[in-house]
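Researcher: Good morning. I'm working through a list of sequences from a screen, and I'd like to move beyond sequence-only analysis. For each chain I'm collecting a predicted structure so we can compare shapes side by side. This is the next one on the list. No need for commentary yet; just the structure.
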Amino acid sequence: MNKKLAAALSGGAVLVLALSACSSGSSKDDKLDPWAKQVCDAVQPQVQKIAAANTAIQKETTDQSAPADVQKADSKGFQDISDAYKAMAAAIEKAGPPDVDSGKTKQENAVKELNALSASYADLGKQSDALNTKDQAKFADGLDGVAKQLEKLSKTGTDALKELEAGDVGKAMAKQASCKSASASASPATTQG
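Model: Good morning. Structure tokens for this chain:
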């Protein structure tokens, strides 16, 4: 039961990489570089926060952990992840649309997607808080349900994020040191367990 949650968390960490693992190359338009720097600088700490939350949840999600400890780690971790996605959405919204074709639509879609992820992780935290930690069997069943929701969430498309960072925007982001370091810090959390 706890292995399912840990595996689902590993899959969910992949979502983080949508904004941080940009393709390399040089952008055609230097107007995108300041936008990319602003977004990458704001996203990097959030990527690290998500990676740390995933690690903390995985560390506590073992068969030897007490239900109350697992619940506490899940609750804090899911809230941290929710807050991080919300902060990413705010950063992209604050940066404004990138100077590319359909930039405003791409930006709005990415913000909407990140806010939806934030809400979904907040809901997982509420589900985790509601689990019965006094009864091991009921807790295991409830945790299994949380793991299934998390697995669905990890398969949620990040199409809007991929669309935002396509082409010249992705190239501009790839040049930013903070996007490179965000990608590196998120990578260990994506190993399947």
